[in-house]
Amino acid sequence: MATTNGRKQQTQKKSSNTSGNSRTSQQKNSSQNNRGQSKKINAPANTKSKQTTSEEQGQSKQQKISTINKIVETDEMQSILERSEKYLTSGYPVHFTGAAGVGKTTLSFQLARRFNQPVTLLNGNESLSNTDLLGGRIGYTSDKLIDNYVRKVYKREDQITERWSTGRLLEAVKNGHTLIYDEFTRSLPSTNNLFLSVLEEGILPLYGTQRNESFITVHPNFKAIFTSNPEEYAGVHKSQDALLDRMITIPVEDPNKEAQVSILTERASISEKEAETIIKALDWAKSTSRENDTHVPSFRLAVMTAMLSSEHEVKIDVKNDDFQQLFFDVMGHYFLENIQGEDVSEAQKRMKEELKKV
């Protein structure tokens, strides 16, 4: 019989990953891999073609997502990008402001790509707090050690350690990321006060983080891009003048008609005539909204209409029933605002007749 020298300790440690669980997981994965290999060997000949079709569909979907995230660089957009790149390189944050759907967020990502460094995205909202920006406690780790080498002596040690997460602003400032703060005026002004010292003094105060240091210095590669909607939009707060004074504000407007046609033809692979038809339909919807003093639909909805028409082979014609239905589905929110108490079916029928005259 083998004997051991030294102390015998029984150690119990709370952990989510134990060796037993690891062995069980390995056995389970091994078993699943074996079953998967067995199925592959015995599969019929058409399995490969099915897998290829699935891969092609996945690639097609990825291409569509990539297309949506791209921006068509018109002369105006190109000018904004070039100017903004210079400002950010010189250390000044940039602020894009304009109505919803004009492409502020897409423009921000296009600008961020020019610097070839990590990008951190923040979405403004009223619940955003210092904990989200700087970090905070996310739980505890408990360690327990029990030693009963001598039967009459019982020794136990417990250790509890706080677990902290790093906030996204702290991560970006510390490591030199490009920060995109989308719709920052939807956050409370008191939350945005943190950015005052970041943009002016180049330091980030560490309020309530229980760190030894009271602030950290902003990384020299850190860059900040802000976007906002007009103040009359619901859920938008008035930003502090002190914060706006620290950034360069550039208005972003809807592209002109020629640029809109170019955007639709490139994104949705449709003809110029079809693009013009969608833009005319959008202009009619905008005019109807203005007459009824309701929210005006954005160019973003024209892009959605073009993409869906192209993907599902809907004939782009204002007299085509399928196109009419698609258009009213996309414009659903604005359509409901404009019926003003009418029966929905009757209102839609009336508005479809009006659309045919566009």
- Counting DSSP H or I runs of 4 or more residues, the number of helices is 15
Report the top-level CATH class of the largest domain.
Alpha Beta
Number of strands: 9
Strand order of the largest sheet: 2-5-8-1-9
Estimate what percentage of residues fall within beta strands.
15-25%
Q: What's the Cα radius of gyration?
A: 29 Å
Shape: elongated
Query: Averaged pLDDT, please?
Result: 80
Give the low-confidence spans.
1-50, 60-69
Range of helix content? 40-55%
Structural commentary:
There is one protein chain. By secondary structure, the protein is of the alpha/beta class. The chain has two domains: 75-251, P-loop containing nucleotide triphosphate hydrolases (Rossmann fold, 3-Layer(aba) Sandwich); 257-356. It is built from 15 helices and nine strands. The strands form three sheets. It has a five-stranded parallel beta sheet with strand order 2-5-8-1-9, sandwiched between helices. A two-stranded antiparallel sheet has the order 3-4. Helix 10 packs parallel to helix 12, helix 11 (272-291) crosses helix 12 and helix 12 crosses helix 13. The longest helix is centred in the N-terminal third of the chain and has 24 residues, at 19-42. The radius of gyration is 29 Å and the shape is elongated. Keywords: ATP-binding, Cytoplasm, Gas vesicle, Hydrolase, Nucleotide-binding. It is found in: Cytoplasm; Gas vesicle. Residues 90-258 form the AAA+ ATPase domain. This is AAA+ ATPase domain-containing protein. Belongs to the CbbQ/NirQ/NorQ/GpvN family.
Q: Can you tag this structure with a few keywords?
A:
nucleotide-binding; ATP hydrolysis activity; AAA+ ATPase domain-containing protein; 15% strand; 15 helices; disordered N terminus; Rossmann fold; 358 residues; two-stranded antiparallel sheet; alpha/beta; ATP binding; P-loop_NTPase; five-stranded parallel sheet
